[in-house]
Amino acid sequence: MERLKRAVRCGVGPEAPGDELESAQERRERWRSIYVIYFTMFQMSLGFSIVLTGVWPYLDKLVASPLLGWWANRARSVRAPLATTLLLFVLASALYANLHLARPHALVWLLAARALVGLSSANVAVARSYLSAATREAERTRAVAGCSLAQVLGFVVGPALQAAAAPLGPGAPYDGTTTPRLDMYTAPGWTNALLGTLNLLLLLPCCFRERPIAAREAMRAQGKQTEKEAIKAIKPDYVSSWMLVGAFFVLVFNFVLLETLATSLTMDQFGWSKTQALEYMGALMSAGALIACAVFAMITPLTKLFEERALLLWGGFLLTGLASLLCIPWGPDGPPLAAADALESEGGCPAAVQPWCLTSRRITLTQFFLGYTSVSIGYPLGVTLIQTIFSKVLGPRPQGVWMGVLTGAGCVSRALGPVFVASVYARRGPAPTFVATATLTFAALGFKRSLQG
């Protein structure tokens, strides 16, 4: 019991007294800046879940993430990159809320708004690099878990915000006026613009004062005279760094694939109508988000009890791979077939366009629930620990570009997910799809000895 109590205590908190690395005032300012980063991550995820999405925003984010990281490294400050991207986000959100003014070219401006949101959301790489610089090694896991939790909450609140705006209704018919509107379609955009403006204000020096400490901690630990000497003395393990980037890609790809397939899979395998699939999957995803929040809260105490690398491999990767195995059809019979003249929204497996429906087995409901539960635990555990270990492997040096590369790997996996669904699931069915993802995940698990904690 005493061991568990010690595990729950989370390192050095913002109200702890000062020490040789920083004063009590500097510690409070440092943690205040971390909380601003949390809000930034929450707000960007919320905005991304509203102005969602397609391949284009992810490609924007893929290109912009390393560039913003390079900018932060060169400037030795994250304030300018964060403020610039937040300003773009506010403009994109306001544009999204005023698309009616852009008629008859509203579609073009909608795509422009999505592109700007994708570009601005690349600031998560800068935010992660700041967390690495502004936390001691003992605090890193806690800080990254808090950052991941903020992102999940943003993705949960986004759809809820859209639902909350429904009572506003669609508004009066468009009559060609050039005044802003507030209705169920524009309210989320206005909310994003307001939160983005608040976030910009939080980046002012009175609220956000950058307090990097990782390099100073390394300097003290090595007995060096300057932070620059300490950074030069630590050689980063590039092999492990690239393997962690690949591992991040694998985990995100697994999650995105199941997320992308969820509605179509349940309609094909359980005969649900589109309305039922959306309703049931909405409830299941909400439950999965709650599970993920609980996992984020437990990561810090778990890393006090178990080594981070082992927890990543046997918790994150094993559970994610198990989720793929559980989604391979093992049922005694085939999926319910859609009637030849049935509408697409009525459910059932359409053998006319998916011939594998006639030969494939059926996924049982129990299998699917167990698989979704496994990925709801394994994914948040895995991605948080990958980011934590990645930061520690790189050491105290500026990590903007590398965090941009890690973020870019996630973007590639999110862009490839729908492509994989179209090319494999639609043509071959669930068995080859999930055998492929399970093989990929367990192959990554096999590199255990090459990972460096």
From TrEMBL:
GO cellular component: endomembrane system; lysosomal membrane
Domain of life: Eukaryota
Recorded GO MF terms: transmembrane transporter activity
Transmembrane segments: 35-59, 79-99, 189-208, 238-257, 277-299, 311-331, 369-390, 402-425, 431-447
Membrane topology category: Multi-pass membrane protein
Keywords noted in UniProt: Membrane, Transmembrane, Transmembrane helix, Transport
Protein's UniProt name: Major facilitator superfamily (MFS) profile domain-containing protein
Lineage: Eukaryota, Metazoa, Ecdysozoa, Arthropoda, Hexapoda
